[in-house]
Design a protein that fits this description.
This protein is mainly α and 317 residues long. The chain is built from 16 helices and no strands. The protein folds into two domains: 49 residues, no CATH class; 229 residues, Orthogonal Bundle (MetI-like fold). Helix 6 packs antiparallel against helix 9 and helix 10 runs antiparallel to helix 11. The mean pLDDT is 86.
């Protein structure tokens, strides 16, 4: 037993020695990684000390004004889950995230497949440039354009009138808000999302297309049986990562596009945190909501990765 323990210690020592030897031989790369390491520590881990605010009582204004913030345990979380507006924010966040995920993913794959089938390189590059250019525009500009397009006297309602249909109050009825956010996000990000899928398609062996053609497969059958299976691993990895962001439906577009008439549908968790953190100055509740969002995101990411692994698909780790 003693000899086995000594052997294990010797093995671990050799592994550590090998690690430090490789690190010493690649000191230039290690030196280049120091700024990134410091960035992660300073901006990702040090701010986590602020999570302690979730367990403090900021409701007692007199004590807070004197610089005293007493601890109150899990009271902020209990209060949070007793609020109907918080459940409403969760509903809105998940609804808009799912709409963005489904329509954004489908649109990106469809556009990537169509561009992959284009043989004229000049036309292909032009379409790629036009479609991913909105990604670089500020959300303020995007929302301003959307407000003009979907206004009561905007081009969308003008088109409905030409078709003999009744105009729709797009910006003032909550039932349209989620879908407007989905449309705007797809238009803004679809071109950017195709870049990864097009890159994955370029790595597909051309001989597979030749073999499918010899077997009598047409263009659509080649897409179905060669192209789509060829990007399956990329799709799974991106899907897992996107599931981890389901609690992040966005902030800017909801904050800028929303108004008093659509508040019940536009308030996300991020806006909820903003309202309680800056307007009501209740940092404890705001931090508790942020912790809840982060914990759920981690659970979703790990769960999606675990399910993908069980199904024999590609995983993050």
């Amino acid at each position: 037993m003693t000899s086995m323990t000594q052997n294990n210690k010797h093995h671990i020592h050799q592994e550590n020695k090998g690690f430090f030897a490789r690190l010493a031989s690649q000191w230039q790369l290690a030196l280049m990684s120091v700024p990134i390491f410091l960035y992660v520590i300073l901006f990702n881990y040090v701010p986590m000390w602020g999570w302690t605010n979730a367990f403090k009582d900021y409701g007692n204004r007199k004590l807070v004004a004197r610089g005293i913030t007493p601890w109150n345990g899990l009271e902020n979380f209990k209060w949070l889950f007793s609020r109907p507006d918080f459940y409403q924010a969760i509903r809105n966040t998940l609804a808009m995230s799912l709409i963005n995920l489904v329509f954004g993913t489908v649109a990106a794959i469809v556009l990537a497949v169509l561009l992959n089938e284009v043989r004229q390189r000049a036309f292909k590059r032009t379409v790629q440039t036009v479609t991913y250019l909105p990604h670089f525009l500020s959300m303020v500009i995007i929302v301003a354009m959307a407000q003009n397009i979907f206004a009561s006297n905007g081009p969308v309602n003008d088109l409905l009138k030409l078709l003999g249909l009744q105009p729709v109050f797009w910006l003032g009825e909550g039932k349209h808000f989620w879908w407007l956010v989905g449309i705007i996000n797809v238009w803004k990000e679809v071109g950017w999302g195709t870049i990864i899928y097009i890159s994955a398609m370029t790595s597909i062996d051309p001989s597979l297309y030749e073999a499918a053609g010899i077997d009598g497969a047409g263009r659509f059958q080649k897409i179905l049986h060669v192209t789509l299976p060829g990007i399956k691993s990329t799709f799974v990895i991106l899907l897992i990562m996107n599931i981890g962001h389901l609690m992040e439906a966005g902030f800017e577009i909801q904050y800028l596009l929303g108004n008093g008439l659509t508040a019940d549908y536009s308030r996300t968790i991020d806006i909820f945190v903003l309202e309680y953190g800056t307007q009501q100055m209740d940092f404890g509740v705001a931090t508790a909501a942020g912790i809840f969002k982060s914990v759920v995101a981690i659970i979703l990411l790990v769960g999606a990765n675990f399910i993908s692994k069980k199904l024999g698909e590609d995983t993050l780790v």
